[in-house]
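Tutorial, part two.
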Amino acid sequence: MKMDKAQRKPLLILLLLFVVFAAPVLLSWFMFNYTDIGKNPPPREYGALVVPPRPLPDWPLVNPLDETNADKRLHGKWSLVYLLNEACREDCRQNLYKMRQLRLATGKYAHRLQRIVLVVNSDKDAIAREQLLDYAGQLVLFPEDGDAETLMTLFRLSDDDHPFGQHRLYLVDPLGNLMMSYEPATKPGLIIKDLNRLLKYSRIG
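Running the prediction step on this input gives:
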């Protein structure tokens, strides 16, 4: 039985109302489930996460250029750490420069980040004073309460990893937890992205 014109008109109005009110809902559902529009990309770390984070002792730090030797500790700030088990040669000097530039690149957050060279063999002359003249604020750590084997265990990333001589940078949080490492080939711009995100959202240090 065919509907006459008078019967079709209310039906058309109902269909039109359905389209007007339902279309936005259906479109939103489709975009949410089948596109990335309006979604924030998940955060990405450019370093290797240390899982679980490893607590480090609250070692005292030394500023070789500061005659007053003001009391500084590993805990309390975000720390970039470089391991040194020999005299400071070219790779070491490159990392001194890299750490200085990374800290400067964090801008307004720079005061929350400290730079540390952990001298594994406790050689007080491993870094000459002259080598630090261009790196004001560079701190050195001589962990007298930890032998080389203990230190290697703390910074080892896998069972067969040998952290000494790898020239990595490590990131330690203000609570003293080793939480991330960066291989020498990691671009500084990517490390800066990690640092800025951590410093922006972290409530500690």
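The first helix runs from residue 5 to 34. In part three we will examine how such features are distributed along the chain.
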